[in-house]
Amino acid sequence: MTNQVEPRVSRGLRDLLPDQMLARQSMIDTIRGVYELYGFVPLSTPAIEFLDVLSGSAGQDAQSSIFRVTNPEREELGLRFDLTVPLARVIAMYKDLPRPFRRYQVSPVWRADKPDKGRFREFTQFDLDSVGTESEVADTEIIAGMCDTLSALNVGRYLVRFSSRAVLNLLLDFAGISHEQSADVFRVLDKLDKVGAAKVRLELMTGYKDESGDTIRGVGLSSDQVDRIERFLAIKGDVRRDVVAQVRDLFSSVEGSREQLDAVERISNHLYSLGYGDDRVALDLSIARGLAYYTGPVFEAMLLDAPQFGSIFGGGRYDNLVMRFLGESIPAVGASIGVDRLLAALTHLGKISKNKATARVLVANMDPSLTEDYLAMTWELRRAGIPTELYIGTAKSPGKQLKYADQYEVPIVLLYGSNEKSAGQITIKDMTVGREKAKAVDDRKEWLAARPGQRAIARGDLVSEVRKLLAEIESE
Length: 476
What we know:
By secondary structure, the chain is an alpha+beta fold. It has helices at 18-37, 51-54, 60-64, 84-93, 136-152, 165-175, 182-189, 192-195, 197-204, 223-233, 240-250, 257-273, 323-326, 339-348, 371-383, 398-408, 418-423, 431-440, 444-450, 462-475, and strands at 41-42, 48-50, 68-70, 76-79, 101-110, 122-131, 158-164, 207-209, 215-217, 281-283, 297-303, 313-317, 332-338, 361-363, 388-390, 412-415, 425-430, 454-458.
């Protein structure tokens, strides 16, 4: 006898059961539909990359969270922490790919962060990127795609905010900060929404101790330098044109500011002309985004009715990432959805249908002598495009098979015995009616006698009657 193994899952990982997977798949299918409407094509890359491919491309936080693995050849490898670095590697390897190469990818990624509520070490991202074009239309298209995706998902009120790393570089010049400190400064600015202005100021200067007693090291900026950063961060406005005007005024003496702000304004104007107004896209120049490889516009989206979930969609321009592999700069821009975070937010908002089954019909298996009839009915419905399951479990009684259908919330059950066969009929049961009436009826005998949602149909009308009943159920 072998030793029994305790069934368990490693910390920060989880199983996704059918109801969770169905909700995810429905959401992913909707997103894919928007991306393909834009003409993006699918790509898949390995979960495991060479460690030197992953290293040195996305900042210290990302590097320290890489899961390291080895293969039988004892090569140093790691699990991908995002989908952008593998894309850069693909661009470098397959030089015949057409440019711009516009791809989408939905895949799991791994980060060895400290697990927390709603924070996992394995999670799914859904990216879209355009590689090989400097056109500001590409940036515009990504932002518009973010808007159209959130609208297609029926998320309610949302806001896409965008900024520019190039403008933040101007901020360094305005505040007298060396560009060598940019990664540290932008990393701290990226925490603004999470920790607030007071803690950001402290971290930019001397640092502080957080609530747990851990020391947050400071960047070492002077009070005057942080004052200048705060003047920049104070620029707000409900109209993108007004924000650009305020920054032009603040940076009037900074060399190169006109060119960079013109680029931001052109993207904003493209969005205006396409109908993406200030109610959906805001210019918020405080956005930094944490990853170090961004070089131009950066953007992120949040749900206004569920702000506690933070950024659920973000990205930016990263013109130098491929340079690590090819030695030449190739312009690129893209965005990524955090599938798990967005799904949690939509569930919180009641925007996710909680299906437990793919089948819309269950054919009850009541009489072994009628197996051929049950098979015929099942395949007749399947060939008509109606998802159908034939019950093949151990339960013999119709009641237990109905309970099985109820557990999976299958909306229609077909009951067929010798009486139905001799009459040329099938009993069709609308399980949704039964569930509702069961809630309202106290007397179980009364409920059983009423047989709610149950009626006989002609065997020859099976497909048409099932379609009609499904249409009625789905319209309710």
